[in-house]
Amino acid sequence: MTAKSRPENASVTFINIFEISAEHLDAFVAQWEQRAALLSTKPGFLDFRLHRARSSDTRFQLVNVSHWESQEAWEAATADPEFRRRVQAAQDDPRTQITSSRGLYDVAVEFSATAPDTQ
């Protein structure tokens, strides 16, 4: 699916990857959970998943994947002043020093598990 063929209000996936040291993970996750709880009440929210690396040697220790009914819904939710205040507080907190990279994505290729052939 190309961006040109995407319907105007198609659902979107928001992905944010975080570089964060192991000693800051728990504090960051607690703050992230509070921000996610706030966003989960917003119109257009579908789901969140915060993935944690199994190894402390992994460059990106956390990966956030969320789904929204539309880009407009995501933009409206993340423009909320309380959400922005909480994000700024997390960025300013020395206990949660992070580098993040984020963006909105559309599915480019999709595969699903198939049932085994029983013949």
Fold and architecture overview:
α1 runs antiparallel to α3. The chain has helices at about 25-40, 70-80, 80-90, and strands spanning about 10-20, 45-50, 60-70, 100-105. The protein contains 3 helices and 4 strands; from the N terminus they run βαββααβ. It is α+β, with helices and mostly antiparallel strands. The chain has a 4-stranded antiparallel beta sheet, with helices on one face. It starts with 11 loop residues before the first strand and ends in a 14-residue tail after the last strand. The mean pLDDT is about 90.
Please name the defining characteristics of this protein.
119 residues, alpha+beta, four-stranded antiparallel β-sheet, 3 helices, 4 strands, globular
In brief:
The chain is α+β, with helices and mostly antiparallel strands and about 120 residues long.
Computed CA radius of gyration, to the nearest angstrom? 17 Å
Helix-strand pattern, N to C? Answer: EHEEHHE
Strand arrangement in the largest pleated sheet: 2-3-1-4
Morphology: globular
User: Would you count the extended β strands for me?
Assistant: 4
SS content category: alpha+beta
